[in-house]
Each structure stands twice: as C-alpha cells, then as structure tokens.
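[step 3/7] fold_predict: job queued, chain A
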Amino acid sequence: MTEPTITQLQPMPEDWRRALAVVAHPDDLEYGCSAAIAAWTDAGREVAYALATRGEAGIDTLAPAECGPQREREQRASAAVVGVSTVEFLDHRDGVVEYGPALRRDIAAAIRRHRPELVITLNHRDTWGGVAWNTPDHVAVGRATLDAAGDAGNRWIFPELVEQGLQPWNGVRWVAVAGSATPTHAVDASAGLERAVDSLLEHRAYIEALTDEEPETYARGFLTGVANSVGERFGGRPAVAFELFAR
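[step 4/7] structure written:
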C-alpha cells in the first residue's frame, strides 16, 4: 500500500498590521496560539485579546468570586510575555456562554474598537478532531466570532453600537481558527516557542489544579509536542496551525 499524502500547510498571510484574538477563557490562547502571537508582536504587529469570560468556573477548589480575579491577573501576565498589552473581558458567565445576538454584539463591538485585519479564535466545532467533545463555551465563542467579523461591518446590525461611537469596521480580511482538525495555514513557532511555554506557565493556578505533573514539564511537553506535530506539515519546523477563512 502507498503511504497517504500529507497535505502541506501554507504560510499565514503577512500583509496586515492589527489582529484581535477572541476566545472564551483565560489560557485558551496559551494552549497553542501564543508562539505565533510572539512572532507577530516581534515583527511589530499589534495584537489585542478579548475574552468572553474571566474563567471563574474553571478551578474546582476556588469559588468563582476568588477564581475570576486570579485568572484575570494570570491572563494579563501571560499576554505580556508575548508582547500583548491590551486584554479585555466581555463578562459573559464562564461555562454557560450562549451563542446569540448578545455575544455577537459584544464581539462585534470589540472588533470595531480594535479595527483588526486578522481575527483569531478557537475551534468552534462540536469536537476536537472527532476524538474529544468540545466545550459549549468554545463552540459558542468561535461561531459568534466568525459571524461578528461580518456584523462589525454592517451599521444596521446592532445600530446601538454606532450610537456608542463605534463606527462599522469592514476591514477584517481573515478569521483564523486555532485548534481546528482541518488546518490550512501555519506560523513558524521556532522563535516564539520558549515564550509560549513561559506564557502558559503564568496560568499556574489553573495548571496546578489540572494536573499533578510539574508545571514546566507539563507546559513544555504539551506545547512542543503540538508544535512538532504541526511542523511535520510545515517543512519540519515547529509551528502553530490555523484554519483560515478569507472574508
């Protein structure tokens, strides 16, 4: 039998200056995207984060009132490691984020505020590669982000945003979905991988609740494993994969 052909991933577009990453929880970006974000900020591009929740339901041993502020602090520190200074929280409730007009409106507002050419989000499909069930928050936020990229450019959808001073922004050229089972593009993670590990390690409270493994061993093993696996389809270089939707 002949070996199946491995489809090579294409390089991500580089002719852009501003990006907005929209995800559900603190740590969502650090489980894979942050090496790419480090490379982009190193190149002088602006990247901002908008998180639907503060991750307040994410640690069983911490009540939400204590957990939310701690995870917010960890997220801001984590973003700073890869050159991101703007981190917004949209204040939807962790664990019960609902897809619908309210979520789309909040994400469209963030897009209008930051006026990105590239929008980044996380896997919006029901499963992770048909192997593990995805969480409702990821599905809702990913799908709403894809829709809000169009909503942001239409003044008659959520006209109250114009009344708030947020003019339509039709400049989103791509939405890049991380964690997709069908990626199309990738970013070389070589230069940003160490900072990606450091960035994930800022989520220490979450990691220590998640696993008994030593945090650095856990973070390094997870991120290098994923990057090297993606690299098999990207010239042998460690990489971060995205499914790219053009607008």
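[step 5/7] annotate
The longest strand covers residues 239-246.
Helices lie at 34-42, 64-81, 101-114, 136-151, 160-163, 193-201, 204-210, 215-231.
exit 0
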